[in-house]
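Ticket #4471: structure export looks truncated?
Reporter: QA, pipeline team
Priority: medium

Steps to reproduce: submit the single chain below to the structure queue and open the exported record.
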Amino acid sequence: MRINRRGFLAGTLPLGALMMHGVEAFAAASPKGLHFGRPQPFDFNSLRHLAKALSAKPYPAENPPAPDLVGAIDFDVSQKIRFRPELALWQSGPQTFPIRFFHLNRYVGLPVKIHIVFDGSAREILYAPSVFDYDGTGLDKKLPSDLGFSGFRVMNGHSVESDWLAFQGASYFRSSGSEDQYGASARGIAVNTALSTREEFPRFTSFWLDEAPKTNTLTIFALLEGPSLTGAYRIKASRGDGAVTEIHADLFTRADIQRLGIAPLTSMYWYSESNSRQGSDWRPEVHDSDGLALWTGKGERIWRPLIDPPSIQTNSFLDVNPKGFGLLQRDRDFDHYQDDGAFYNRRPSLWVEPVGNWGEGAVQLVEIPTDDEIHDNIVAYWQPKEPVASGSSYAIDYRIHWRNSEPDFPSTLARVVATRTGRGGVPGRALPRNTHKFVIDFEGGILSEMAPRYDIMPVTTLSRGKAENAYAIKIVGTKRWRAFFDVGLEGSQPLDMRCFLRLGDKTLTETWLYQFFPPIA
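Actual output as written to the record:
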C-alpha cells in the first residue's frame, strides 16, 4: 500500500518495544534488530481493490533514491554488502524458511516495500543501515536512513546459507529447483515483448509475506504496477520435488496492450550440440534451457529446441486451453558442459501448468541473438487471442513447477534428447549442393524397449524443400533411437520442420519442431 514512509518512521520503535495486538507473535518470529511500521489491516481483497483503484490513475514517475551512491554499487561492491543472517525474518521463529533482504544496487535501484502479515494485519519491515554488513565500504554512513530494500530471498532453513526462492528486480522471481542451482526466471507479466515499440517492465512495488508455522508453504502477496496495467498477486510457494509457485493474479489495464504475455519465462541459450559451431567458448554447450516444451489442448506433446537466431525471432504456437508449456533443461549430463562453476547441467526446468481454461491464444517464443552467456535472450509466455483494451480486468491462475523435467509426461512416448545438424549426403560420395542433414535422438517410452528394426519411420513436414533419405535406427548399446533426413535448400529463408517417429499408425514419440537458418555461403 502507498503509505508515507516518513510517517511510518516517525511512529516506529524496535520490535521488542512495541506493545500492541499481535506483538507476541511478531516477537516470536522476528529478531529485535528489525524495525517495523505500525500495523495496518490487510487481506487479499483489500490488495485487489488497491490495484484496481491505482489502475484508474496515471502511472507515477518513480525516482530512485541516492542515485549516485546506489549507482556506484556495482557487482563487486554488491558482493561485499550482506544482510546480517541473525536478523532474518523468522530466523528464530517456528516458521520453516527464514527470509533475508537484498540491498539496492546499480542494477536494481528502485526500492520495494516488504511487510510481514499476521492475523489480518501487516507491518512494513523498515530498512536501517544496521541490518547490513557493509564490509568497510563506508556506505552505511552515506546512504539515506530510509533507503529501502530491493527484494528478498527465502532461505533453505535456519543457519543455512543457501536460498531456494528470490524476488528482485521488476517482477522477476526464480527458484533453485531440485538441485539447488538457479537458472531461468519467471516474471509476473510481460508487456509488449519483442515489438517495434519499447517493452514495458511492470514491477512488484510491494510485498506482504505470510508463512504458517511448521509448514512447507510461504504465501507472498504482491502489488504490480506499470504504465499499462496494475495487478494483485497471490503466490503460494512450496518445496517438494523442486519447488512449486501457485499463482493467482487479478490484472487491471491502464491502456490498450498490443502484446500481453501471461506466465512469462525468461532464460539464456547460446549454443548446444545443435549449433555448436556458433559458440566461441571452450565449453561444449552453454545454456540455461535447451528447449520449449508444449502440451497442447488436444493432447499433443511438442519439443522445440532453442536456437540463437541471426535476428530477433518470434514464433507463435496457436492453441486452445493449453495443458502446459515450459522452458526446460533436458540435457543434464555434466560432460556435455564441462563447467564446474556455473553447473548448467543442474539448472532447473520451468513448467507452467494452467489452472482452468485459458481459451484461445498462443504460446509465443521469443529468441534474441547473443554472443555471451550473460544475457537472457529467451522469453516464452501465453498470449490471449482477444485484444487487451484499456479499462479491462483479467483473472488468471497457474502453477510453475521448478524441477528437472516437465511433470505428467506420458510414459508411452519417447522424448527428444538431442538435435544435430550438418552437411547432407552420404560420406564417400559427391555431396549434393546446399543440402543439410538433420539428426534427432529420441529416448524413453515403449520405443526404448524395442529391439532394432527397420519399419519405424520418421514422419516429416517442412515449410519448404523436401525431406530425403529419411530413416530411423536404434543406436547400438543404448536405448536411444535416431532419426535422419536430408533437406536441399536454396536461399537464406528459414526452414520450419516437424518430425516424429511412427510404427504403422502408432505414434511413438513427441513431435519435434525446429527452425533452421541456412548458413550464408
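Status: closed, not a bug. The export was complete when the record was re-opened. Leaving a note from the reviewer for reference: The domain at 170-192+228-409 is CATH 2.70.98.10 (Beta-galactosidase; Chain A, domain 5).
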